[in-house]
Amino acid sequence: MLLYRLASAFEKEEIDYAVVGGLAVALHGVVRSTIDLDIIIKFTLSNFIKVEKVLNELGLVANLPLVARDVFNYREEYIKNRNLIAWSFTNPAAPVEVVDIIITHDLKNMKRDTLRIGRHLVKVIGVTELIKMKKESNRPQDREDIKALMELKK
Asked: What does the alpha-carbon distance between residue 61 and residue 42 come to, in Å, rounded to a whole number?
């Protein structure tokens, strides 16, 4: 499974990361289907370069002709002027393997949980931070996710 391969490779390369988005909702215990794997990282040039290397080694390629250094250096411009919220990668040999590196949120100072899934350890954004991110997006699915996550907190 891509999630396990990615988590293992990120740990090996010492990349600070957390799963966010629909998969994070599901990993926290809400029944939710999603295809893509949304990730946030700490914003350092080193992390961006290591992420690109790991994803390429896992067979994923960037959907846009952007390299790590450009995404790091021009992130604000891409967000503001090009409405880019994620640096997306897809595996041409397995098109269902999609990873989005969310560039609108820095992992720095965000709480994350380490979950054991079988024999694998996966870092997932904390429920409070996940709810905050979902509120910022405010799409219909995000509003449903917020309701379900709030029920978990009770």
From this structure: 21
